[in-house]
TrEMBL record:
Domain Disease resistance R13L4/SHOC-2-like LRR: 219-542
GO MF term list: ADP binding; metal ion binding
Organism: Aegilops tauschii subsp. strangulata (Goatgrass)
Cofactor: a divalent metal cation
GO-annotated biological processes: defense response to bacterium; innate immune response-activating signaling pathway; plant-type hypersensitive response
Superkingdom field: Eukaryota
Pfam families for this protein: DDE_Tnp_4, LRR_14, WHD_DRP
Name of the molecule in the record: DDE Tnp4 domain-containing protein
Lineage of the species this protein comes from: Eukaryota, Viridiplantae, Streptophyta, Embryophyta, Tracheophyta
Domain Disease resistance protein winged helix, residue spans: 90-156
Length: 1103
């Protein structure tokens, strides 16, 4: 308002003077801002702070900040001790708000009614945030995690130096400090740059200590005990073998807070019930602890209990009526262990986390928990074990029955929270619809709910309708809901404004979600500031989003498939798009100031974004800057790209990219080397005399000729097993990554000459072909052994990166039809798509230390020209054929019907034959995997013929694998040995790609089809999507036109649609019909498929 503006102007001059006194240090200015906010907004309040004599205090060392001291002096006494205590917490570990408040309570810093201690402590915590003395971590909600700036921490630790010691295990004088002074509080944390241990004996002189916080490895000896620390009230200990200490826990009469994190204990002592004053017990890191002792129920002062994931609680738990926070309570019903019904009397609960709710056998147990009666409950987390896999889909082996769905729906219906709930998290729920109290706010008016998180909804098909009327909901997050395909009008209600206070909406992992209905006239989400969409198939934004979400500032889109444009969001100031493969344009974002684009290869248009200040562009695959750079003029550009593109940028005006970035005021461009994303840089500042700074050379010229030492007198082809033209093609494939490598590091011959690109490729190919150790290959080429190994490793990485299309499943229709055509032409197997076989690769000698590096098992699919179209490595070299197949991507895809789902053959008796592959008798027969007949008893001519052709095709696959090993002798494992299993698999993969490249480049007859075959395939592919009647008419005419060519077409395979075509091989066959699309049908049995194929061949008359 105008009044506010006038008031601010009166404080401006004095505010600037205060900023100058802060030394313009940002953290000091923030702390001062927090102090002034607490003091009030009047001019005299600010003047009093400015004139305070404490600015000039000489009590502190010069390196400490006087602004923090001034803020501390103005702090109320109750807050000072909480502030100083916070500085003791190790920086290397996250401490949550609840943990910090619990420690304050344990130390007696929080005074008040016992019922309100946590609430009062939370208010203290928020006041420290308000004063900017601790800073919230924005990746957590509700101030759950904060941190303290080093400047503030240094001051606070100075103020506590007489009674507290904060040190790291790497400090040289830690033992001297412990021996020279008695402390009330000790905080010892791990120094990540060093690895050390602390002897428990060195701590025993600190007998008056009240708080011990340790995140270091402490060396224990038999007999070590906690008894000497009789005054200990707070103990937080991590990464220690504390089994000997645990036995003496019961003797710590004053202990209030006990946290055992990542400690190796499997039992707690039975006498732990003697710790009568214990209020906070955190066992969440004791992963081996399975059962709690019976005496745990005697700890009637417990306010917090955090349990390990697998831990069981004994019966009698209902007596712990002081419990405020109960975390990881398992809903188990076996034996003498506590069940949900014992939660009924715990009326003081504020936070409750229930897990494994799928184990509740009846809704009555859930009802007995009486959650709706717990009027103090503000946070509720309801967890089931997730039914979803890593891909976000329901695990095949864990399908959900209708009975299971109905049971979990009834259970959650009875876990209805009280109306005062503020935070709700549901995870792993597998009912078809969410609980009724979520679908309708009339049942339970959750008017205070501000945060709702829903994860892993295996079976829900819609978002709950009632959420839009929650008056205080600020954060809604849904992650991993694979059955939701459509967000309809029910999500928003027309009657009144929906989601009136929603500030952040995040929808992720809804992998099948394609449509979002929201009409412009439906008012909703007026306060929405941040929208995150992740891993979905949303095709476009609903009209109502841009027109209603007038407060939307941040829009984040990650892996949103099918979305082709983003436009008309007038309020958005920051946009992040990452991995959106179909995004083509971004337009009409008039207030957009920051734009981040990562891996969006189809993006071509950036228009009407006049306010753009900062562009971040990240893509390590692009080889040139996008063309849209010419159309925009941001002030700042931050570029993360590959080294090759960076070298084009550093070329400046003489480079190819100059006109795409020269208009930008400041450019910071980086290329990575390993994990270092900023190893190579270019810094550019625009101007008449522009500045261009870089740590790479812009004048590097690389020789690309092959040195004479690389060519053997026997001839090029005899050494490299390929033509010179094929070698040149491979050099072209890896040229870009190899040139990048040449920029980054020099590889030379032993005489000092720099190796050219072709020299490096030749060295790597010699390594793979010869199979000899690097020292032998290097000696023959005049190259050091280490250089040979490095160049070979880089070559393998480059082939993996650049030659991916040379080992890829033929998804393209025409490519697959060519394969089927040649299988029929060569082997008489119509509609066959490949031969599956396995190969065993053994590396290393019997003395190899690491057996896991010694060998591996590979499954390969081979096409009729002996190319590999798919390979899969077994998890173990001892797997048999069947288990290897079942583990493979091929098997899982075929069983789902997403592979081998193309054209089908329909024969005269009406049976269908889908696409298939063949394999030997070691494989399990499937409708898509045909194995040979067993030769037992009388076997028909058609079966004999099938086995004959099956055997010929299988032998071809075996020859392909033999040729692979014979050509690329590194796979024989007698000389060179990869370092590990991953390197071994990458090497095999690279050799398979090179094997395919040689076939593609040199065996033209294997890849070229006759004109008649090409024409046939082309016509059929054109006809597939046309009307069935028209297809028949066109094809009939085609047959009439082709009648005169019967003789020359007898050896050519045709694809048949609806009407008879000319048969293949040497027989006439009954009419076949090719069908595409529709429901995938498979032959009823494997044998039936085999019989259909060859009965048609054998029973037909010869020409």
């Amino acid at each position: 308002s105008e009044i506010d503006e006038d008031h601010i102007s009166t404080l401006k001059d004095i505010g600037l003077k205060i900023v100058q006194k802060c030394g313009c240090l940002p953290i000091a200015v923030k702390v001062m801002g927090g102090l002034l906010r607490e003091r009030g907004g009047l001019h005299r309040d600010w003047q009093q702070v400015l004139d305070d004599s404490k600015w000039a205090t000489t009590k502190m060392p010069n390196e400490l900040n006087h602004t923090v001291y001034l803020s501390y002096e103005y702090m109320p006494s109750y807050l000072k001790q909480c502030f100083l205590y916070y500085s003791l917490l190790p920086k290397s570990r996250i401490f949550t708000k609840d943990e910090v408040v619990a420690m304050w309570i344990s130390e007696g810093f929080i005074h008040g009614n016992s019922n309100d201690l946590e609430e009062l402590g939370e208010n203290y915590y928020k006041e420290l945030v308000s004063r900017n003395l601790i800073e919230p971590d924005k990746s957590y909600v509700d101030l759950w995690v904060c941190s303290m700036h080093d400047v503030v921490r240094s001051f606070a630790q100075y103020m506590t130096k007489d009674e507290a010691l904060v040190t790291q295990d790497g400090d040289n004088d830690i033992l001297a400090k412990l021996g020279s002074q008695k402390f009330l509080r000790l905080s010892i944390e791990t120094n990540r740059s060093q690895s050390g241990e602390l002897d428990w004996k060195s701590l025993q002189g600190q007998q008056s200590v009240r708080t011990l916080i340790s995140t270091v490895q402490i060396k224990m000896k038999p007999g070590d005990s906690l008894v000497i620390f009789s005054s200990l009230r707070t103990l937080h200990i991590e990464s220690a073998d504390v089994a000997s200490l645990v036995e003496s826990l019961h003797q710590l009469k004053h202990m209030r807070y006990l946290a055992l994190v990542n400690v190796d204990i499997s039992v707690l002592p039975g006498n732990i019930g003697k710790m009568k004053l214990l209020q906070f017990l955190d066992l969440g890191g004791c992963t081996k602890l399975v059962n709690l002792p019976d005496s745990i129920v005697k700890l009637d002062q417990l306010r917090l209990l955090s349990l390990p994931i697998e831990c069981m609680v004994p019966r009698g738990f209902s007596g712990l009526t002081n419990m405020r926070r109960l975390l990881q309570f398992r809903a188990h019903l076996d034996g003498d262990w506590c069940s949900l019904d014992e939660l009924g009397p715990l009326s003081q609960l504020r936070v409750l986390v229930l897990t494994e709710l799928e184990n509740v056998s009846a809704a009555s147990f859930a009802a007995n928990a009486r959650l709706s009666e717990k009027m103090h409950l503000i946070s509720l987390l309801l967890y089931c074990t997730s039914k979803l896999g890593d891909d976000g889909l329901v695990k095949e082996k864990e399908g959900v029955s209708e009975e299971e769905q109905q049971r979990i729906e009834k259970v959650l219906d009875k876990l209805c929270p009280p109306p005062g709930l503020e935070y709700l998290h549901i995870k792993g729920y597998f009912g078809r619809q969410l609980p009724s109290w979520m679908m309708s706010t009339s049942m339970v008016p959750l008017d205070n709910l501000n945060t709702l998180l829903i994860d892993d909804l295996a079976c829900c098909t819609q978002l709950p309708n009632g959420l839009c009327q929650l008056p205080n909901l600020q954060l809604l997050q849904v992650r991993r809901a694979p059955c939701i395909k459509h967000v309809g009008t029910g999500f928003l209600q027309v009657a009144s404004a929906s989601f009136p206070r929603l500030n952040k909406l995040s929808l992720g992992g809804m992998v099948e979600w394609e449509e979002w209905e929201w009409e412009e006239q439906v008012q909703a989400m007026r306060r929405l500031e941040k929208l995150v969409l992740n891993n979905c198939r949303l095709r476009h934004f609903p009209p109502g989003l841009a027109s209603n979400a007038s407060s939307l500032k941040i829009l984040i889109l990650v892996h949103v498939k099918h979305l082709s444009y983003i436009e008309s969001f007038p309020s958005v100031v920051e946009l992040i798009v990452n991995g959106c493969p179909d995004l083509e344009r971004i337009t009409n974002l008039p207030n957009l100031q920051k734009l981040t684009i990562m891996y969006c290869p189809k993006l071509k248009v950036l228009e009407r974004i006049a306010s753009l200040e900062r562009l971040v562009l990240k893509d390590y695959t692009m080889e040139k800057l996008p063309e849209y750079m010419r159309d925009i003029k941001p002030r700042h550009l931050q570029l993360f790209c590959r080294l090759w593109l960076l070298s084009a940028v550093v070329a400046g005006q003489s480079g190819t990219e100059w006109d795409k970035f020269s208009q930008v005021e400041h450019v910071k461009a980086y290329a990575r080397d390993g994990d270092n994303e900023r190893k190579w840089y270019v810094l550019y500042t625009r101007g008449d005399n522009y500045k261009l700074d870089s740590n790479i050379s812009s004048s590097a010229i690389f020789e690309e000729t092959l040195s004479s030492c690389m060519v053997d007198p026997q001839g090029f082809e005899s050494v490299y097993k390929m033509r010179r033209s094929t070698f040149s093609y491979i050099c072209g494939l890896v040229r870009l990554p190899f040139l990048e490598d040449m920029m980054a590091r020099d590889h030379t011959f032993v005489d000092g000459r720099v190796m050219s690109l072709q020299d490096r490729v030749a060295t790597a190919v010699r390594m793979l072909i010869s199979g000899e150790p690097p020292v032998v290959v290097g000696s023959s080429l005049g190259v050091n052994e280490s250089t040979v190994s490095l160049v070979t490793q880089r070559f393998i990485e480059a082939i993996q990166e650049r030659a991916f299309r040379h080992l890829d499943w033929p998804y393209n229709f025409q490519a697959m039809e060519k394969i089927k055509c040649r299988f029929d032409k060569i082997h008489g197997l119509p509609n066959c798509c490949g031969v599956v076989h396995r190969a065993y690769f053994k590396f290393g000698s019997p003395n190899l230390d690491h057996e896991e590096n010694a060998d591996t098992l590979m499954q390969a699919v081979v096409d009729p020209d002996m190319r590999f179209t798919n390979i899969w490595f077994g998890a173990s070299s001892s797997m048999n054929q069947s288990s290897l197949l079942h583990d493979s991507w091929l098997f899982k895809s075929c069983e789902k019907g997403t592979l081998l789902d193309g054209t089908k053959l329909k024969v005269s008796d009406g049976s269908d034959i889908g696409e298939y592959i063949i394999g030997d008798a070691g494989y399990p027969p499937r409708p898509w995997l045909l194995t040979p007949y067993q030769l037992e008893g009388d076997i028909s001519d058609s079966k004999v013929e099938f086995n004959k052709r099956h055997s010929a095709a299988t032998a071809m696959a075996l020859r392909a694998l033999e040729r692979l090993k014979d050509t690329w002798k590194c796979l024989q494992g007698e000389g060179w040995h990869p370092n590990n299993q991953n390197d071994l698999r990458c090497t095999i993969n690279t050799c398979c790609r090179l094997h395919n490249i040689v076939i593609d480049m040199e065996e033209e007859g294997a890849v070229m089809l006759s004109n008649q075959e090409e024409n046939c395939i082309e016509q059929v592919s054109q006809l597939l999507d046309e009307d069935a009647v028209k297809v028949r008419d066109v094809l009939s005419q085609h047959l009439v036109d082709s009648r005169g060519k019967i003789t020359q077409l007898l050896s050519v395979h045709f694809i048949f649609l609806s009407l008879p075509l000319i048969p293949s091989f040497t027989y006439f066959v009954s009419p076949h019909i090719c069908c595409r699309g529709g429901t995938r049908s498979t032959p009823t049995t494997n044998n039936r498929s085999r019989e259909i194929i060859h009965k048609q061949k054998i029973d037909s008359p010869r020409k």
